[in-house]
Amino acid sequence: MGLMGSTTDEKEEAASSPMRTAETILRLVPMALCISALVLMLKNSQTNDFGSLSYSDLCAFRYLVHANGICAGYSLLSAVIVAMPRPSTMSKAWTFFFLDQVLTYIILAAAAVSVEVLYLARKGDTSITWSAVCVSFGGFCHKATASAIITFAVVACYILLSLLSSYKLFSRFSAPAISYPGKDIEIAGCQG
Amino acid sequence: MGLMGSTTDEKEEAASSPMRTAETILRLVPMALCISALVLMLKNSQTNDFGSLSYSDLCAFRYLVHANGICAGYSLLSAVIVAMPRPSTMSKAWTFFFLDQVLTYIILAAAAVSVEVLYLARKGDTSITWSAVCVSFGGFCHKATASAIITFAVVACYILLSLLSSYKLFSRFSAPAISYPGKDIEIAGCQG
Fold it and tell me: Subunit arrangement (chains A, B) (predicted)?
């Protein structure tokens, strides 16, 4: 029994190491992407004959910068915690699960509002007399679009991360009683 | 053994019925909310001295209407499927999990872009000469705000539903091998 236990341990050690490495990488990738999107947007300003435009003039882009900053910080912190070979407790699983979900929603909302503002800036809206800003500030719009696309890549990473953390949390629970009423009746019939 | 089997069945039948009812209600509530948000936005148009404005003039609100329509349809369909006392298969759990997640992201994006457009319409943006439309079209903005708030209630319901469906799916899996290396070593030590 003792031998079996240690064999299981070795197996678990062997299995956990690549899984932990994979999760650490999956958390470091969005960190790099967040920083790229953040720097690209922070440096995004254009001055020409029409005036000057910077990311801080639009609340959607300010929100994008903040969301990417928070996301980069959390990604780094969570990657460090995952990389450490500590036992995974229930409270840690709940915290990762909760924060991964929240970050996914925050970063998705940031990407969505940025795309909406870029769409309005590109096409304009004649019925409410909003002009197509991108006609005058093409360079600004290009960089902002690149930043929004990178943010969507972050969203994809975070969707994967929230799937992973919900799997790691909920696989510890037993299946709900509702699961297989039909199958159970069948088994009971066979045994009776 | 047969008696034990049927007792378990009875327990499961008793436990599954309130759970199924609760899930059905949790799926019917967002359906009602989606239809309210959809009808409110569809009927939202205002004509005055400045001109006329309808929801279809803004792509964010057109997206909100479509998202709410899709969400209402899916909520009704999924509520009907959940309400039927059929055995829950693995493919059904995967389908619910996948679609609940997708719908959560779609409806969250719709709510976020609507709030962004409403913010711009209320405050305007002097640096890009976008006027504050809500000054001229107050009634339109009020109804659109109400519709966006209702959509956020739908988002809250769908966050709960996607938690529930990920619990129902992942609790069928066993915990990953990484879980408790420390605890396992302790048990092995006690047994050896």
Answer: Homodimer and heterodimers.
pLDDT digits (tens, 9 = 90+) for B101-156: 999 999 999 999 999 999 999 999 988 889 999 999 999 999 999 999 999 999 99
The dihedrals phi and psi of A4, each to the nearest 5 degrees, come to -60, -40
The partner residue sitting opposite B128, judged by closest CB among A5, A133, A169, is A133
Interface of B with A in 66-85 (CB under 8 A): 85
Structure tokens at B30: 């967002």
Which of B59, B87, B191 is the closest to A1 by Cβ?
B191
- Nearest CA distance, A36 vs chain B (angstrom): 23
Across the interface, whether the CB atoms of A181 and B12 are under 8 A apart is answered yes
Reported pTM: 0.82
Map out the domains of chain A as residue ranges.
26-170
Nearest-angstrom CA–CA distance, A36 and A31? 9
Whole-complex ipTM: 0.81
Q: How many residues are given for chain B?
A: 192
Cβ within 8 Å, pair A109-B112: yes
